[in-house]
Amino acid sequence: MALPQAIKAGLPCMNLLRMTAVPILEQLYLEERLLRSSAENWCIINHGTSLPTIVMGISGRPSELVELKPVLRDQIPVIRRFSGGGTVIIDNGTLFVSLICNKNAIPGLQPYPHPIMSWTGQLYGQVLCEFGDFHLRENDYAFNSHKFGGNAQSIIKDRWIHHTSFLWDYDARNMEYLKLPSRAPKYRSARSHVEFLCRMKDYVPSRTSFIEGTIKSLGGHFSIRPFDLDELGSLSSSLSGSTKLLTRQELEEACTSQCVAVR
Amino acid sequence: MASRLMWASQAASFLRISLFSRAFSTVIKDLKYSDTHEWAKVDGSSVTIGITDHAQDHLGDVVYVELPEVGANAKQGKNFGSVESVKATSDVNSPVSGEIVEVNSELNGSPGLINGSPFEKGWIIKVKMSDAGELNSLMDSEQYSKFCEEEDAKH
Fold first, then answer.
1. To probe the interface with B, which of A156, A163, A186 has the most B CB atoms within 10 Å?
2. Signal peptide span per the entry (chain B) (predicted)?
3. Is residue B20 part of a domain?
């Protein structure tokens, strides 16, 4: 058993779980489980995901958000996650960082969407401002006006999660699977996916420098304790929560309704 | 500013609503309130439930409401559904236990009713209460106003 790091006086503990290429569905099941069943603070970092996958927010409708014919043709998985927010297509160039906190973990932080968005924006701003003109633009992380990080949250009685998909790199061809969303931030200004997004690797020297910087930034608020995936035990098993992989039948029905709407 | 507050206070008294001066969130007298910002309107054993003006103001524009099934059981202090606003889903917790006998299906097409009319058209569920004694653990309007002021003052 690894010796725990010295607890920083007065700071709450945060468990740091680092993973590589864990499928996003598994990651989301784990996060939902930790949010609802654990009483501890967590930082989960996952480098990439094995297959290109579309992930919608809780209210996402595939007929409105996804180009269903190519998705069905190419058998791209479509997931509806438990948190709010928009639709992303993720692949092995995506970097995930998720923060799960008790509502009293950060003194003075109200457990509502805007305060949490602002606080996490400052956390990442500390890390990224030296690499580019970092902004929290509406609810996205951007260099100038180009988005590289998408955020989503879920807030329950005494805890919250703020999770981010960072575009370390991405395959522009995958963007063809997504429609332009009807609900988009104003700063997007009707730009296409490719014109709107940027890659972190064009700004930040390495994934390691970003991850280590983030952990250091978190260390100003928490006492970080490395945690192994195999220590999770029963917490790592799937939960009958809100996160759902859509079936082929559901996607086909959505495709039918999409075709009818077009006619 | 002082005359505006005095006018507001007189109007509030006439309309049987409370205002707390800092945020001007509305609190309705005669309702009961939970510490997770839900309200309960009691009518015999039937209780109508929604989220407060304070809650909708802090959440932002509601774009989606996850409603429970009619017939499901609600438990005091436990979530029965959620609302989506900004990029967040936020649990809505029941102030009382009992069977959910009605849900506000208008919220499917018009989730913004929660923002525009949190205490009336934005109601979320109706519950047939199983234990009226649970009402004793809820706050009245004055206690809730004070609770909100104290919560906002801490941050």
1. A156
2. 1-23
3. no
Partners of residue A119 in chain B, C-beta under 8 Å? none
Q: Residues in chain B, how many?
A: 155
CA B71/CA A42 separation, integer angstroms? 36
User: Domain holding B61: CATH number?
Assistant: 2.40.50.100
Residue B23 has φ and ψ, to the nearest 5°, of -115, -10
Domain count, chain B: 1
Tell me: the pLDDT tens digits for B73-110? 999 999 999 999 989 999 999 999 999 999 999 999 99
In a domain, B102, yes or no: yes
Write the pLDDT tens digit of every residue in A135-175: 999 999 999 999 999 999 999 999 999 999 999 999 999 98
B71 in a domain, yes or no?
yes
| Pairwise CB contact (< 8 Å): A59 & B79 | no
What is the span of the domain harbouring residue B76? Answer: 28-154
- The answer to whether the CB of A141 falls within 8 A of the CB of A124 is yes
Q: Rounded to two decimals, what is the model's pTM?
A: 0.90
Interchain proximity B79–A153, CB inside 8 Å:
no
Residue B83 inside a domain? The answer is yes
**Distance, CA of B127 to CA of A146 (rounded, Å):** 47
Smallest CA-to-CA distance from A251 within A26, A72, A29 is with A72
**Looking up tokens 């995958």, which residue turns up?**
A174
